[in-house]
């Protein structure tokens, strides 16, 4: 079974997290740049952005599909390389993946990610 790991981290730590994941063989991921609110607001950016005036925190979102057996390892890598020890370091979600289909040839299953 496969899982989708979604991690919201500080943008300044993205390169460290990405490099550590690749080093451990987790090469394939999608990264998004975004803004959000939570319990933490960046004290240096209280007014948000011009695009989203209500948003207070810049985030990088990593999405990575992995086999269930690899979830704990991926989370450990993200926690190790994506934390400062302060509020606002982020959060990780894990969701089940019901089906994977490669668009190019219609193949299905975890092997399409290799």
UniProtKB/TrEMBL annotation:
Q: Which domain of life is it from?
A: Bacteria
- Name the InterPro entries on file: N-reg_PII (IPR002187), N-reg_PII-like_a/b (IPR011322), N-reg_PII/ATP_PRibTrfase_C (IPR015867)
Pfam families in alphabetical order: P-II (PF00543)
Protein name (record) = P-II family nitrogen regulator
Q: What organism is the protein native to?
A: Fodinibius salsisoli
